[in-house]
Amino acid sequence: xxxxxxxxxxxxxxxxxxxxxxxxxxxxxxxxxxxxxxxxxxxxxxxxxxxxxxxxxxxxxxxxxxxxxxxxxxxxxxxxxxxxxxxxxxxxxxxxxxxxxxxxxxxxxxxxxxxxxxxxxxxxxxxxxxxxxxxxxxxxxxxxxxxxxxxxxxxxxxxxxxxxxxxxxxxxxxxxxxxxxxxxxxxxxxxxxxxxxxxxxxxxxxxxxxxxxxxxxxxxxxxxxxxxxxxxxxxxxxxxxxxxxxxxxxxxxxxxxxxxxxxxxxxxxxxxxxxxxxxxxxxxxxxxxxxxxxxxxxxxxxxxxxxxxxxxxxxxxxxxxxxxxxxxxxxxxxxxxxxxxxxxxxxxxxxxxxxxxxxxxxxxxxxxxxxxxxxxxxxxxxxxxxxxxxxxxxxxxxxxxxxx
Length: 404
Fold this sequence. Notes:
Number of strands: 14
Structural class: alpha/beta
CATH superfamily of the largest domain: Response regulator
CATH topology of the largest domain: Rossmann fold
Strand content: 15-25%
Helix content: 40-55%
Oligomer: single chain
Shape: rod-shaped
Radius of gyration: 65 Å
Number of helices: 9
């Protein structure tokens, strides 16, 4: 009895097909084969190495088990491998179990890339003088990559871990296969004038064939012609594509590109908080010191002012006292002189003279100073100390003269 129904006498199971293939592959003709080809996707999984051996038209999976490998080639390198064909029935996979690897020169694809690199380098596309600075505080970042890969998730996660405000825009492009380089170059030409602070061209790791679009001359020239600063993050840390050389900066991985384009917002906020705390503490301390100095200065100033003005006040008081004394002395002297003058005037007063027995003689209200001014018959007024009389001149006698 079999596990499969018999549809016809020619029907066989998958296991029978694989067993037949396995029997053919195990034939002596497929033992000790020496196969020439180009290495692609060389990698280790535990102690075993896995890679693809290919030429222009076909490829063959290879495995080199621990202890059998004699040489570790690089991707793109041409080698001759020796081994036995093996068919894994359970998985239905044909592979070459390699026992030895001999290098015979670099692969055609690698040589082609090297020739293109030399050409572009001679034209100056990789010169450091052409490199633009990556903004330290980018706000709008464009990532040119495949939306379906893990690359964009790694970049966004890395950026958001450091910065919640950077705007990340993704342009979905093919990053592998025919036409991918032309598509990426066209996108770069269209977005260059849109005002992004930085452009990131990103792709995960892969074989040399997988990364071939980023060795394409059209794409390299498009990167070189960008006015916007550009970061190339293609492949693993050990991969160096031609885009890496033309870009303004190379990131060893897409995650590293996220680190480059995002400034540490949270660190800046914490730093500003620390600075504010230090500044506040410094201002308070400076205020306390300034206040203490101001109090000391004010006390010293007040003491100096009191001393200064006290001396001035004493001098003013002395000056006022001297002025007062001088004025009083002057007034006393003036008062004495005035009293003496009044006494003198009083003694010269006609009334005083009249009281001593003298009389004042007036004729027609004019004082008569000389007898010669009178005539016989004039009426005169005689004023004495105790009264006045009127009299008529009867006779005039002049001493030494006779009035006619």
